Amino acid sequence: MSEPTPETLQMLSRCGQQPLLQILDQLPAAEADQLLQILLDADLEMLVQAWRNADAEPVTAPKSNRAETASAPANVVWQPQSEQDHQRWIQATAAGEEELSAGNVAVITVAGGQGTRLGFDQPKGMFPIGPHSGRTLFQIFAEQIQARRQRYAAPIPWLIMTSSATHSATVEFFQQQAFFGLDQRTVHFFQQGSLPALDARTGQVLFARPGVPALSPDGHGGLLRALKRSGLQQQMSEQGIRHLYYHQVDNPTAIVADPALIGFHNTHKSQLTTLVVSKTSPEERMGALVEIDGRTEIIEYSELTPQQAARKDSTGQWVFWAGNTAVHVFCPEFLQQLTNGDRNLPLHVARKMVPCVDLQGQPVPAADSAVPNAVKLERFIFDALPAAERTLIVEGCRERQFNPVKNATGSDSADTCREALNRIAGEWLRRAGLQLRSEAAVEVSPLQALDAEQLSMRVAEGELQLSDFLMD
Ligand code: UTP
User: Fold this and answer.
1) Are 87 and 260 in contact (CB under 8 A)?
2) Which of 193, 236, 256, 446 could pair with 241 in a Cys bridge, judged by C-beta atoms 3.0 to 4.6 Å apart?
């Protein structure tokens, strides 16, 4: 083993890692080296600092004056109401279509999360969500990308971020499924980093095995480092990509590479554009976009007291109405600025149960099964927002575009998402003039139609009929 430097030893001691220091020279050299490398790369000192700053209590009293100084976002493109608005959206769509046809757009799907709330034991992208077909989330996105590539005769590279928790299973699944018919050279997997979990009481590194820290993915904000380290940031720049269309793996109704959003983003010369929807109530557990000191930021629901969350402005509008759908368009140069020198986003702390062992390798039982034993540290991509000088917020249609699968039951679950997919398919078919029973089981593949207009056209031209969509 290369001897740890005195600086490293001092840092471990400053961070209160005495147990770790004790085992260091008992470990095989390669393991000790690897352990130190992980801790230095993760910037353990910063992790411990985040743990020290973390609040153990839920928010009951105002935490900062951020919530008080925030106002509703100023720069918003609203859903069209008037004929003039409609024209504006049509122009934006045409502008976005030009960007797509010119080969200027790549898609990033973040799929590195552990999906603990859903309780599915595979990567979430492999979850069968098609209400009747059982299509997986990955298949729905692959079909959307395929259909857009065909429509615009454009390459549209697909970048999929995985983590150590999801990488092998995801790549194997794509191989088994023959990349859903996509040319595999156009699908790029890249892995985000991991961070060690810390003991919630002591801030000491927790171990999965003796000498091996308990690691978890570093949050969707890990995208910045991972894009750079994988070389994909450079590759996309060489390919002339001008817009990176970002979405999460858990919302199959997200419109991937939506020309309208790309068009607005391009025309406004925005560095970071975000699709928002109106929150259903002030208490809804959804981060809200706001403006603070002339910058766009997100305030998490967990940062607000119930009184703050319900605050209205002088127009009678909720200040925190603009719920983040986690669909963004990034300007690559902006991302490059953020990653210059490997600068990083702030750390967020989540209290979770993490299985761990003691120095002898014996499992450590939880002191109290109701109290999480660990803090996990994560970075969030939306923390990039305040760094942008030019942002844009576009209001989406919630029923059509935001139906995520987060929970095993209840709201934002597989059931609510499948209902939405069935409802949207029914609406498109009725608009195309097809006679449908109200409870009919129907599903539209993105390869059949990307939107209601295309479906109507294909039905009118006799290319598709009702039986192509009926599933029972
Ligand atoms: P969530 O924050 O909903 O987390 O991720 P999750 O891992 O899917 O689910 P829970 O919280 O454990 O139940 C939102 C999106 O960000 C991705 C997820 O894959 C999902 O697309 N993500 C999350 C990452 O890519 N990496 C991460 O480290 C965390």
Assistant:
1) no
2) 236
Under 8 Å between Cβ of 393 and 76 = yes
- Can you tell me the distance from the alpha carbon of 206 to that of 214, in angstroms, rounded to the nearest whole number? 6
Under 8 Å between Cβ of 404 and 444 = no
Stated pTM of the model? 0.95
Atom of ligand 1 at shortest distance to CA of 115?
A: 9
Q: Is there a single domain that holds both residue 184 and residue 121?
A: yes
Domain residue limits at 117 = 63-405
If one counts the domains in the chain, the total is: 2
Contact 154, 100 (CB under 8 A): yes
For residues 314 and 437, membership in a common domain is answered with no
Residue 171 within any structural domain of the chain: yes
Ligand 1 centre distance from Cα of residue 430 (Å): 35
Q: Is residue 297 part of a domain?
A: yes
Model confidence over 258-310: pLDDT tens digits? 999 999 999 999 999 999 999 999 999 999 999 999 999 999 998 899 999 99
Q: Which amino acid is located at 160 in the chain? A: I
Is residue 357 one of the residues assigned to a domain?
A: yes
CA–centroid distance, 24 to ligand 1, in Å, is 33
How many Å lie between the centroid of ligand 1 and the Cα of residue 367? 27
- The answer to whether the beta carbons of residues 448 and 143 sit under 8 Å apart is no
pLDDT digits (tens, 9 = 90+) for 251-261: 999 999 999 99
